[in-house]
From TrEMBL:
Top-level class of the enzyme under EC nomenclature: transferase
Signal sequence interval, chain numbering: none
Spans traversing the lipid bilayer: 339-358
This protein's name: histidine kinase
Annotated TPR repeat ranges: 104-137
EC number: 2.7.13.3
Pfam families linked: HATPase_c
Classification via SMART domains: HATPase_c, TPR
Keywords annotated in UniProt: Kinase, Membrane, Phosphoprotein, TPR repeat, Transferase, Transmembrane, Transmembrane helix, Two-component regulatory system
Lineage: Bacteria, Pseudomonadati, Bacteroidota, Cytophagia, Cytophagales
GO molecular function per UniProt: phosphorelay sensor kinase activity
Catalytic reactions of this protein: ATP + protein L-histidine = ADP + protein N-phospho-L-histidine
Amino acid sequence: MPSSTEAIRQKLNTSLSDTTRLRLLQAMTTALSAEQPSRALPYGEAAVGLARTLPEKQRAPGLLRSLLNLASCYANLSNGPEALTLLTEAQGLALRLRDVDALARTYTSQGSIYHERRDSVTAWQHYRRALQLAGQPAVSAHTRMRLLGNVGSLFFFRQQYPQAMRYDSLALALARREGDSTAQSTYLSSLATYQMRVGNMGRVNRLLTQALAISQRQHAVRNQANQLIMFAMYYMQTSQPERADAAVREALKVARRSNYLERVLDSYSILAAQAADQERYREAYEWNQRYVDLNDTLNNRQTFQTLASAQVNYETQERARRMRQLTQQNEEQAWRSRLLVLAVAVLAIGLLVTAYFYRNLRRNRAALAANNQALERTSAELRTVAGYKDKLYAIVAHDLRGPVTAFAGVTSLIDSYIAQNDQAGLARLPALVRQAADSLNHLLDNVLNWAVSQTGELDYRPAPLLVSELFAECQALYQTTAAASWQHITLSAPANLRLMADRNMTRTILRNLVGNSLKFMPTGGHVHLEAAPDPDDAQMVLLSCTDTGPGMNAATVASLMSGPALPEATVMPQTTTGLGLGLALCRAFVHRHGGTLVIQSRPGAGTNVTVSLPMAKSIATEVEKIKAQKSPSF
């Protein structure tokens, strides 16, 4: 690619392929858009027009870059409506092509346009979307640098000066690392503006001197105009009127040469203020009159652009209205044609009696079809109920085997201990009998709760419940069972943490979680119950049960989480008693509270089951207040 705009222009006058010409037009637009946007505009329009004529595979990438370049030209010419229209089309192309860098550039450009309109809320929405993408490797350093600088300007507009200086310092460091002198000049100027606002005038002079030197080396006349205006303001604040007058007149000359009307307007304003301060009122009046005339011109141009946009919208709506009207007319014509065909068909039948019997026959057929559908639905429901019944019987038979076997084993132990006169063994028998009885009682509770929940008769009565009391009750219930196998149950819950939940359902959930952990955990294992507010939802509380058992593989966890409402009887291997109805009840009761149940487990690493239940309102309100105090406001 040629290195200068003149070389590009000469190259464009030769015979070229469409793709080569498109790249040259894009390069010319990029080179001129910052300093000479009015000259860049024809090249940008030509690039967009040429890109739209390319073959399908080449069209989208070329059109995307051309739209972004042309939007930059219109933005530099203060034509926000046209720039936003182009950026909206570019955004759709970037999403379709999954071009993360182009999408970040689109959001950044949209945010800068709304910032120019002083709509900081909408500008921040677009900048925030761009910041979410900025960390991805596909986003270029130039895009990231421009985004950081624009965000710094937005914070400066909001008078949040520490944040503004932070983002501009990041942009400046990135510009220095990439060797982008023009960007360095821009961000040095921004930092000088912030230092001027906080009164650090010595720092302002050094920053502006560095920025202006870079702009003069780069022949960046628009940056020079901005920096000279800032020098004039600096000299006015440090009581150096002669230097201020020289700086603003130099800025006016540079701004006129580059057709930078906004800085011309600023120069007029400063010259009028200086003349008024020095009691040169006639000169002040003349500068002010020039300011008013130019400001009216700019406002008229913006008004014309707004009216043109409104005219385009009106024409679009009018075309849509006409299209709807034509569509409606076509539908009416088609309806009339169908009526005519129906009339001919009725006349062809010839006899009204035949039509009467035919209509009755159709009614009978419809009634018969409806009856068949009702019978099929009833049969399906009966098959479902029968399936639930068979599964329930299978689970009861499967899970009941464990407690019954335990009782049989106790009777064998009694005979053995009596024959051996083992007094220590006989002393442990009550605990073993109690453990087997608790297991059997727990199974019967689960079966009863499940049967009631399936028939819809289980009453849901939420009330404030103290988590520490629920944990202590569950620990006391299983303490003897755990001690018999040298297992331990520990608790951790804030003293005042409360749930808004049904007591019976919550106790059933905790009993099943702890019971399952003890059931599958080897001798000497450890179960830990813990409660804490949900960091992602201030209205919920997280209750977790962690054990040191054998754990489960990913396939078993997935089947437990995505299985039917009533599980199969052989979820676990045959060496265990199975999870049975316990997990199904937990899932049903947690969902009844509007919460979630999550299982995390690995073979040999134990299992963690976490459920979320609603928090009592008073506690939830305090948590939300604490989070609101910690989160920054924009």
